Structures are given as structure tokens and as C-alpha cells.
Amino acid sequence: MTFSPLLPLGMLVVLLGALALFAIVQFARAPRRSGSWHWLVRLGMVLLLFGIALRPSLASNDQPSAASGDVDVYFVVDTTSSMAAEDFGAQSEPRLVGVRADIAGIAERLVGARFSLITFDAETVQRLPLTTDASALVSGANALNQEVTVYSGGSSISAPVEYLAERLAVEAEANPDRTRVMYYLGDGEQTVAEPPGSFKALDPFIDEGAVLGYGTEAGGRMRQFNGYDSDAEAPYITWFSDSGAQDAVSRIDELALRGVATQLGVDYLHRDGTKSVDAAIGSIRVGNVEAETGAPVGTPEFYWIFAFAFGMLALTEIGALAVALRDLRRLEGESRAG
């Protein structure tokens, strides 16, 4: 049995002890007065409040892989044009549709963590600083779009490494006891001439996480984006060859994504909309909330037993109040009649 007091234990003892002493004194001063037994009821309610405030719960012997405590979750999202490729899920939707759904699913299972949203294309941008507001994260994810097509100059899967290394180093120095989780969401496509850089520099700062891959080997076409709205009727991105203009096709590079996962020391998971995000959560634990098999599961608490008993005693107080009001009206009536 463990306890998680709502207030410091000393403060609880002083406050509720004073209330209990007051109830005892009131009962002792008028033991024969009608209704004095209500002070015993009130004493019981004070004791039950103490039980509620202690928040008793069962101790858990499970040891999560991530430290039990405060957790920072970083979502690093590829927003280059290739993430608009229409080969995600049974409906062949843009890959970013899957990204949005997975971010929402992970946030739902890691209630209480701090979340940050970072995107990269031509530049790396922190869209959302660390916050416990999961709704802000989901709103930010739902607003994600591919980069403006005319500004696209090729993609590098390692583009955010330098920014992340600086950001994580600062956070690690400021909050060394926090657990840091990173999710890298992309398709692994490297279209610039240079080979991708290594993610090894981030490994010392990352405790848990996963690389989530989107796309298929067959690939998908990408619609153009003008920066204002996502038009389902927009023309597809094209490239020119000796035979003329052709629709560009983006294909997932799982070998590159597995390499990123290895360098970060996390798992690689291919995402196609057919499975939940449970495998990406693993046994990460946030305070009393542990996500292992689906929705967050809390440590069993027993304050509700005390709360139920408190409610039953409170009903007697309501009854006593009703009687007092009735007697008051009767006395007022007698006074007027006299």
C-alpha cells in the first residue's frame, strides 16, 4: 500500500486534526442536547476526509523501461514534399494523414508527459515548445502540411540533427532527471546529393522512442502545395526526363529508417494504418500512468471507498439541516401567531 497525499502530510494533520478536535469538544460540551450526536457524525466525516486526502493505492512491482517520473516527448516530423505521397493506408491517403493519427494516438497514451513538435524540410522549426497540453499538440499536428512545392530543394533525412543536438543538450542540462522520448516520423527518402548524416550525437540524450516509417515500396504521387490550402484537385508534382514530363513518385526507404533507429538506439516500426501505436509506446511510464496495452492504465486507488462513506454521512447532515429549517419555520410561525 502506498499513499499520495493531496497536501503535505503535516498540513493535513494540522488542518483535519483541528476540525476533529473541534467536533470532539462540541460533543463533550453538550452530551445530552438534542442532536448532539451529529458531532460524532461530523467527527467521522473528518476522519474520512483524512483517508481521502491520503489517496491510498496499491504499490506496483512493475519496472518500466523508461524512468518513472517526468517525461518529455519530442515528435520530429518530416514535412518535405515526399510526405504528401498518396500511399498511406487502404485509401491511399497522403503520408501526413498517418503521421497526424499516430501523434494523436501516442499523446493519448502518454497522458501527463510534456510534448514538443518539431518539423523539418528546407529548415528545422519547433512548431510547439514543450507543453503538457496534449490538445495543443494534436491541433498542431492536424495543421501540418508539406513544404511549399516551389521552395522544395530536395530532402535530407538528417536535416534536424544539428538543431536537435543543441536543443536536447540544453534540456538535459536544465532538467537532468527527466526522461526524454523521441519519435522520428518520416519516409527515409534522401533526395539531395550528399549522404545523410548520423543521428549518433542524439543517442546520449534519448531514453526511449521509435522511428516510424510511412510509405510503400510501390510509392505514391504527390500533389503540389501552394502554402495556403491543401487542394485535392491540385496537379501532381512532376519531373522531367528525356521522354518528357512525368509524375514524380516517392518510395519509402526502410533501410535508411532502420539506420536512424539503430543510431538512436530505438525500434523501427512501419506504419500503414492497420495497427495501433501500442508497439511505439512499449513500457514508457509517465508518473502513475503506464501505457503498455492500449489506453492509459492508472495505479488502483482506494480513496473512493472513503468518499462513498463520506457521502453516506453527508446525507445525515442534509437530513439534519432539513429538520432545522422545519423547526425554524415553525418557530417563526409561532412567533407571528403570538
From TrEMBL:
All copies of domain VWFA, residue ranges: 72-264
Taxonomic superkingdom: Bacteria
SUPFAM superfamilies registered for this protein in UniProt: vWA-like (SSF53300)
Chain segments annotated as transmembrane: 6-27, 39-58, 302-325
Pfam families (UniProt xref): VWA_2 (PF13519)
Keywords per UniProt: Membrane, Transmembrane, Transmembrane helix
Keyword Zinc-finger among UniProt keywords: no
Keyword check for Transmembrane helix: yes
Protein name: VWA domain-containing protein
Organism: Mycetocola manganoxydans
